[in-house]
């Protein structure tokens, strides 16, 4: 691949309905010095042909089909290994960026070496015209303050994971390399412990509504052992707590308390998601008969 300023990694699997729009939003960027590397995880729909057609039409686009399905986690992380440009960015198959997104964020990073990543306000599809739905927080301050901010904003941190980030930072990521609930939050924490994360006031990242967190029972998907019934975010919590030794004791205590609260709340929602469908199918019909 030719050299460029930014490598964009797009993992795809059966995304024929969304991938064209996502690619077009990247091709239409005012900043054009990028490569778009698409890793297809053995799609069995029309995704491959759509991506191949774009690769033929635009020399900045490269399409690779894996011989076997690597799983979503490996498909995402294997893209980082090819980050041979100064900057790297993941692009989800159902997300769209406004045309100025890349330009404003790369321009900011070029003049602010203390920042490891930069993104724009974000919202979900259908909320583009409602500014009250736009998420616009940044992550600045001391190490402890940045780590607390990541935890405080974890449920709304999608745009950090999909930000423009410095490739030399993300290539040295120390997050455990296996799928777990909150893996994207762990990536965000890794970025935050390495520096500030900016949010520009221009551009917009529009998130699709078909992400993994909206598909089926996400608790069951990542529940690997008994501990995940008690602490659904067990793996994320371990990684988080392994990084708090260098921050003030007050912030450490605050983080530990919030980690406990996160797991208690999530354990409740996990149990509810398992029991309620059973209630609807079996218990409620019996009650109605009586």
UniProtKB/TrEMBL annotation:
Gene3D superfamilies in the cross-refs: Spore Coat Polysaccharide Biosynthesis Protein SpsA, Chain A (3.90.550.10)
UniProt-listed Pfam families: Glycos_transf_2
Domain of life from the UniProt record: Bacteria
Domain (Glycosyltransferase 2-like) ranges: 8-135
Keywords attached to this entry: Transferase
Gene Ontology MF term list: hexosyltransferase activity
InterPro entries in UniProt: Glyco_trans_2-like, Nucleotide-diphossugar_trans
PANTHER family named in the record: GLYCOSYL TRANSFERASE, GLYCOSYLTRANSFERASE
Record's protein name: Glycosyl transferase family 2
Organism placement in taxonomy: Bacteria, Pseudomonadati, Pseudomonadota, Alphaproteobacteria, Rhodospirillales
